[in-house]
Amino acid sequence: MKSLIAALCFSAWSWVLYAAGEARPNFIFFISDDISQEDHGCYGHPVIKTPRIDGLAADGMRFDNAYLAISSCSPSRCSIITGRYPHNTGAPELHSVLPDDQIRFPELLRKEGYYTALSGKNHMFGNKDRAFDSITRGGGPGGSDDWVGLVRDRPKDRPFFFWFAANDAHRGWDVSDHAPEYDPAEVVVPPYNVDTPVTREDYTKYYHEVSRFDHFVGLVRDELERQGVLENSFLVVGSDNGRPFPRAKSRLYDSGIKTPWVVHFPKLIQKGAVTKSFVSSIDLSATCLELAGIDIPETIQGRSFLPILKDPETTVREVIFAEQNWHVYRNHSRLVRWGDFAYIRNNIPNQINICAEADLTYPAGKELWQAHAAGRTTEQHWQVFANPCPEEELYHVSADPHQLTNLATKPEYAAQLETARKALARWTGETGDTVPANPTPNRRGPPRVVDGKVVPGKQEAGGNPHAEFPGAARKATKIHHPGPLRP
Fold first, then answer.
1. In whole angstroms, what is the distance from residue 322 CA to residue 137 CA?
2. Residue 422: how many CB atoms within 10 A of its CB?
């Protein structure tokens, strides 16, 4: 009831705002590439410097339970821009292109007079799209060099929506003078990676690129203030998936699926706040459209989180659903996150659950495999090497923040397991999700340990040989049901 009343109040607030002729809000969505939520100062990281994002959080609202709909680059972006679950977009796998018939929410803003531009990493469609007046590559090592210029030189007689998409912190690394360089001795190595000099050096470059993203977010904020439009600008800082290291990116643990979500909107948020309420990345679409006074189409499965901005204790959804599909390696995993628990269902369990960041492609992954071959890994590394991977995983999140102890087989958690199974079954049915009968094959085989040595996997398929997409068997691209909001 509290959520319903809050939603009605916001609808009334929007109507009064525009009936009074006030300027419509501007929007900027800053999306980093491969950065986990915990890797920001405002989220408690003791080393990585993100003072500009921290400042936005201090004056705005920090969301501690913001989740992505998928932990994979292009399908995550396609999901955000449509407000739909990946299997409903028609672009649920890495490097799949968003179909033209899918509505992008910026195009609805553009139709209502907004100036819209995308700068930096696109990864959704070509260099022209009906959703944007302008699409640029951004420029510079982080793809962010033209952001300030775009804000400065925009049409001044129109409200604006900018999708600013950095290349930071995607591999390969590119050090510049826009951010500090870090000492390997300072690095905080997660328990599911191996702590070696090579791994630490790898992490220092990641830290640098996180800080560079922060730098450019700050420059844009300063330009908005210089123009006198910061007060009426709705800023959101997020990411497309977790850090590009083993057991983060392309996995459904918090390290891969939990996104930074910092909202700064002085017109509405007068005092800094933190909320524990759940939000999904698909909720950005409905939020921006409601705030702009534009009808939300039935295609959008997300929910507006405007009520939370008014009252951080408000709840708009009690459960999060997320998915992981093909990302170089086969995958069909599904997440249910509710209360203090996270449940993962691995629907292709007869394999190792891996991604390129956890094979031999990059230093930290190679180090992990070499340690495994030498017998120096521990139980904390089991999720990377489990073969077959477990069909079900259940974690008590606050007691086990890294999700290292699987409770799915413990009788005392049978009730939580049943709750998750029912919720997932309902979401699967209502949104049209399916397990492909002919899934996209691995691009290459995973590494193997033979006689104490790591053997690279053989090439299995070239390019991006997309086969049957999840949801295709039920024509999920035509299904608009949002799924359950409660477990």
1. 29
2. 13
409 CB contacts (<8 Å, ≥6 apart)? none
Cα gap 34→147, rounded to integer Å: 19
Residue 284: name the closest of 261, 255, 250 by CA: 261
Collapsing DSSP to helix, strand or coil, 392 comes out as strand
Q: Is 298 exposed, middle or buried (0-12, 13-18, 19+ CB in 10 A)?
A: exposed
Q: In the chain, what are the domain boundaries?
A: 2-317, 322-478
Please answer whether residues 52 and 214 qualify as being in contact, where contact means their C-beta atoms are separated by less than 8 angstroms.
yes
Q: What type of residue is 436? A: P
Residue 195, CA distances (Å) to 184, 351, 363, 456 in order: 11, 26, 12, 22
Tokens, residue 80? 């955000």
Determine the straight-line distance between the first and last CA of the chain, rounded to whole angstroms: 17
Closest CA to 163 of 194, 204, 135: 135
pLDDT tens by residue, 377-427: 999 998 899 989 999 999 999 999 999 999 999 999 999 999 999 999 999
If you average pLDDT over every residue of the chain, what do you get?
94
Q: Are strands 341-346 and 333-338 parallel, antiparallel or unpaired?
A: antiparallel
Domain 2-317: what homologous superfamily? Alkaline Phosphatase, subunit A (3.40.720.10)
Q: Which residues 6+ apart lie within 8 Å of 168 measured at CB?
A: 32, 33, 35, 141, 142, 143, 144, 209, 210, 212, 213
pLDDT in tens, 427-465: 999 999 999 999 999 998 999 999 999 999 988 877 778
Burial class (CB in 10 A: 0-12, 13-18, 19+), 274: exposed
Predicted local confidence at residue 1, as pLDDT: 41
Which parts of the chain sit beneath pLDDT 70?
1-21
DSSP type of residue 128:
-
Q: What is the DSSP letter of 470?
A: T
